[in-house]
């Protein structure tokens, strides 16, 4: 039986975080009344002329550099000609044979093994309007989104030597997650997939294993969640294999993901490149990028997610799973870095931040940037645990109070009288009281149910309001119960 292998390409469209559109001064925003953020330029009215948004060029250049691309010293815009109701000019200002950035990559951990997914190009264009399909076989169009600055990032198949291609639905999803993380670190887009500011269009084909020539590809349009990317790619790979095994042929077409049915469905035949009749945009001058411009952008880049993840593991001795969580956002990564540098135990810091801290952040909806816990305050809490002033259970109570009030650990412990009980006389009294109050459990323990020790420890801790030293309690109970 023929064994097939996938060829998966990804086209990702990202709306840039600018205040105005790509070629006019109209405001950029999500929602609002339809067709209220439009002007003659973004509607393509006669006599209107586009002017390039310098901030959009800067953000896109920054992203291309961060993705390892070479920046074209000179590039131009093109007109991509096609008719669709959401495109008021009947052409889209885009780039064709001379994109802003080429030959980059995104690193993923496909199957636990690092892979560099090759990027063919990063180019600039404008977004289209938005269609709303309603009853009666009608569609409404909203041009508020028309002309919003858009960056398109396209992978390369086959990849050059030393680089990789996406080979599964899992890797498709991870590629998009890693790309989104990089763009958020850079601050070039809010990447809100549910609002359409980041959309993915996988191109999928399969071929007999070892065959050089690619199979016929299909494209899934406008996927706006990681789940939809995984499900859409996984379904399409299985659908194409089924068609070929049954003697059918794959048709080059554009398909959509039907989430309610869990399938891809045909939309229209896929356009070929020559059908767009690309030609240089006559109303915009060429753009020139010198070394000084790109050098300044490169110098301003933050430490990127994968590099930070690896540094956290090397410098702080934490696991990859912990480093993944702590480097997930730039804000969290900066916060952990500051806390780890202020502490003598970065691994303990990682444990508290990925555990109690995230629990409180998620429960309260607090942004990490707005947290009231300072790096020095977390170090003080850990010092109190190390010195035996408080035990870990009490520390959780103190930490929660620190999170809500901004007070230091020392202040809270003193105010509430939470110092750990280390007086063996007081602990022994509590142990004796618990043993006397639970004769049946004592007999069961002596009869071989040694796991009941945790019951007795819990009762003693309750008796001492959680302030007894657990190690002392355990040792004393075992001595008195004869373990």
Strand arrangement across the biggest beta sheet:
2-6-7-10-1-11-12-13-14
Residue share in β-strands: 15-25%
Q: Rg to the nearest angstrom?
A: 30 Å
DSSP strand count: 16
- Tally of domains: 3
Count, helices: 15
What is the helix fraction of residues, given as a range? 25-40%
Low-confidence spans: none
Main sheet characteristics:
9 strands, mixed
Q: Taking all residues together, what is the mean pLDDT?
A: 91
Secondary structure category: alpha+beta
The oligomerization state is single chain
- Calculate the terminal CA-CA distance, rounded to whole Å: 65 Å
Shape descriptor reads: elongated
Give the topology, please.
Blueprint: E1 4-15, H1 54-66, E2 70-71, E3 74-75, E4 78-81, E5 91-94, E6 101-108, E7 115-126, E8 130-134, E9 138-142, E10 149-155, H2 169-186, E11 198-208, E12 218-220, H3 226-245, E13 253-258, E14 263-269, E15 279-280, E16 287-288, H4 291-299, H5 305-316, H6 320-326, H7 330-342, H8 346-364, H9 375-386, H10 392-405, H11 409-416, H12 424-437, H13 439-446, H14 453-463, H15 470-481
Summary tags:
single chain; 483 residues; alpha+beta; Arc Repressor Mutant, subunit A; nine-stranded mixed sheet
Report on this structure:
This protein has helices at residues 54-66, 169-186, 226-245, 291-299, 305-316, 320-326, 330-342, 346-364, 375-386, 392-405, 409-416, 424-437, 439-446, 453-463, 470-481, and strands at residues 4-15, 70-71, 74-75, 78-81, 91-94, 101-108, 115-126, 130-134, 138-142, 149-155, 198-208, 218-220, 253-258, 263-269, 279-280, 287-288. With 483 residues, it is an alpha+beta fold. It has three domains: 4-297, no CATH class; 302-416, no CATH class; 424-481, Arc Repressor Mutant, subunit A (Orthogonal Bundle). The protein has a nine-stranded mixed sheet. Strands 5-4-15 form a three-stranded antiparallel sheet, with no helix packed on it. It has a two-stranded antiparallel sheet with strand order 3-16. α5 (305-316) crosses α6 (320-326) and α7 packs across α9. The longest helix has 20 residues, at 226-245. It is elongated, with a radius of gyration of 30 Å. The model has no long low-confidence stretch (mean pLDDT 91).
């Amino acid at each position: 039986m023929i064994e097939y292998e996938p060829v998966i390409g990804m086209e990702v469209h990202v709306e840039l975080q600018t205040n105005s559109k790509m070629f006019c001064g109209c405001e950029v925003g999500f929602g609002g009344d339809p067709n209220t953020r439009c002007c003659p330029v973004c509607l393509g009215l006669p006599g209107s002329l586009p002017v390039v948004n310098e901030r959009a060029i800067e953000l896109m250049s920054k992203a291309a550099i961060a993705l390892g691309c070479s920046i074209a010293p000179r590039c131009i815009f093109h007109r991509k000609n096609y008719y669709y109701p959401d495109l008021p000019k009947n052409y889209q200002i885009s780039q064709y044979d001379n994109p802003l950035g080429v030959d980059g990559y995104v690193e993923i951990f496909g199957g636990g093994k690092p892979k560099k997914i090759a990027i063919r190009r990063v180019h600039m264009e404008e977004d289209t309007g938005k269609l709303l399909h309603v009853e009666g076989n009608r569609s409404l169009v909203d041009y508020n989104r028309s002309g919003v600055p858009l960056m398109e990032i396209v992978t390369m198949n086959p990849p050059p030597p030393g680089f990789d291609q996406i080979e599964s639905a899992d890797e498709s999803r991870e590629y998009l997650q890693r790309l989104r993380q990089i763009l958020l670190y850079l601050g070039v887009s809010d990447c809100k997939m549910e609002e359409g500011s980041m959309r993915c269009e996988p191109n999928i084909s399969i071929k007999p294993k070892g065959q050089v020539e690619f199979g016929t590809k299909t494209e899934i349009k406008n996927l706006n969640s990681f789940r939809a990317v995984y499900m859409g790619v996984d379904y399409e790979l299985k659908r194409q294999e089924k068609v070929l095994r049954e003697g059918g042929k794959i048709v080059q077409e554009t398909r959509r993901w039907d989430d309610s049915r869990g399938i891809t469905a045909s939309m229209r035949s896929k356009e070929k490149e020559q059908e767009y009749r690309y030609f240089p945009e006559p109303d915009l001058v060429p753009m020139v990028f010198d070394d000084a411009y790109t050098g300044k952008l490169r110098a301003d880049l933050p430490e990127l997610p994968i590099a930070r993840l690896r540094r956290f593991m090397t410098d702080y001795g934490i696991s990859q799973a912990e480093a993944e969580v702590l480097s997930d956002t730039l804000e969290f990564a900066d916060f952990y870095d500051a806390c780890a540098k202020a502490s003598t135990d970065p691994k303990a810091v990682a444990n508290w931040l990925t555990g109690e801290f995230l629990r409180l952040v998620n429960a309260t909806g607090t942004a990490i940037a707005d947290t009231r816990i300072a790096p020095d305050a977390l170090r003080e809490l850990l010092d109190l645990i190390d010195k035996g002033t408080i035990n870990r259970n009490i520390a959780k109570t103190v930490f929660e109070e620190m999170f809500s009030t901004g007070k230091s650990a020392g202040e809270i412990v003193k105010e509430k009288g939470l110092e750990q009980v280390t007086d063996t006389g007081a602990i022994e009294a509590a142990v004796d009281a618990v043993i006397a109050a639970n004769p049946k459990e004592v007999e069961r323990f002596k009869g071989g149910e040694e796991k009941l020790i945790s019951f007795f420890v819990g009762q003693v801790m309750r008796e001492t309001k959680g302030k007894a030293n657990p190690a002392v309690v355990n040792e004393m109970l075992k001595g008195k119960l004869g373990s």
